[in-house]
Amino acid sequence: MIFQSVGMTADRAELTAATRVVVRIPGYPFSGVAMGRGILTILLLLAACGRGPSPDAAWSRVDGPTLIAELALTRPADAPPRVIVDVREPELFAAGHIPGAINIPWPEAKQRVPSELDPAHDIVLVCHSGPMGDELAEILDERGFTQVRNLTGGMNRWTGPLEPDR
User: Fold this and answer.
1) How many Cβ atoms from other residues are within 10 Å of residue 137's Cβ?
2) CA triplet 46, 51, 54: central angle to 5 degrees?
3) I need a labelling partner for 92 at 20 to 30 A (CA). Which of 56, 80, 106, 158 fits?
């Protein structure tokens, strides 16, 4: 049985203690590893957390190359300010982050970001690999934020410039 990342469907849902499956989910470190039922359940739950925006969501994902190109351009004077929010641990943020990003570590970001940021700003969320940003984007969407994007693959896939914390 092979689970595909699109829709997370399978031919059969019959799992027994002896069943071993190969799971291939892009962006997840255990992708392609044969595993038993318990680990498969955990992996599928983790995959569901980072499933992406629903069709009616006000948030979206942005890939690294697109964000790199945007950062290189001068923003129009009438464009809303861009705020890049890195929700990783302070030590990781200090070691290197996207230029201009602010650090509001997870899990307090779930409470702080909706109350501290302006819903009219262009908000880009950054985490380790994406799922925490997806969850925070959902929270912001529910609170009326309309310009929210999550960096696809998070810092694990970021190939753009970094700046250390000063």
Assistant:
1) 26
2) 145
3) 80
